[in-house]
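step: validate -> pass
step: tokenize input -> pass
step: predict -> running
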Amino acid sequence: MTKLWPLILIMFVVQALTLVQTIDNTIKPRAKGFDVAKAALKKVINRCVFHKPNLFRFMIRMCWVEGHCGDDSDSFSADLKNTTGRGIWRISEKIFKEIREKARNNTDIEMRPIIENMKIKLGLDVRNMTGRPEELDPPVNNALIIAMYLTTLPHQIPASIHEQAKFWAHVIKNNLTLISHFLDRVATIPKPLRPPVDLLISIDGSSQPFLQGPQFIHFVQDGIKFILNETKIGQNHNQMGILEYSDDVRKPLKLGQNQSRNTIEHASNGISYSGGFARHDLALKEIENMFADARTRREGIPRVAILIITKKSPDPMKTIEAAHIWIEILGLFGSCSYST
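step: predict -> pass
step: emit ->
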């Protein structure tokens, strides 16, 4: 029977498959490449305290623009005093010394938790660095210094590519003639080749979440639009279905039904609250039925279900049964288990 895995698990599996060969290279001097840079940046962002919006996306673009993430021939041949900088993110002497002095002076409030986190979680202390190649060449070290530099800037990092191009040219390079260079290079960033999937989004419409209120529906709709912007929809590409439920189940959009961006957005805009109980078990069973129906048309295509819930089920055990989950309960004097 079809097993339904949470989206977060699917995301971790995909990342693990793409980064399995690069995760150890993040600490390897002179390691290079787009996947290595992305793995190093994820390690830094996840383990240190960086709250600046749009930092990750800008940094990965900056890495590619500066020197194709280390693939340019002079990425590791220049020293700090060279104007091109050194390493995957091309750290210059000015940037390195500025960050080291701020760290040593301990006057920047945003810098303090970053310094402590990078010492504990990454074993790095920029205050003790001298700028030697062996310190700057590991991708994770390079990423950390640039992330600290961008975080301490008074400027906000914009979200759009065009505004990021202006930001990089003006703030980082102090040369507005380089805007087109940024845009041209970003256009060549490699995109991962992924097989098409059948994606089914199931939304609990029984009640509004306490904290988000009516805005929650808009968050869901924005999430669907984000997915549409990041994927290709079509008969031979990705397909999406939308399912609403509470006491009963509604299917605004079946998998494979008139698959286009417009039809998906139209179905998304029709999502609303209906009240009642949160029958997650009915939703899970209907997801399985929809996938089974789609299988006759697209055999062998991976299937991913996203279940968005707003409150507890009135019958948790029915939900567990519908999800085909094995539960092991460990007690003080023994154990008991429940499975379907």
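step: describe -> Residues 1-23, 326-340 have pLDDT under 50 and may be disordered.
step: cleanup -> pass
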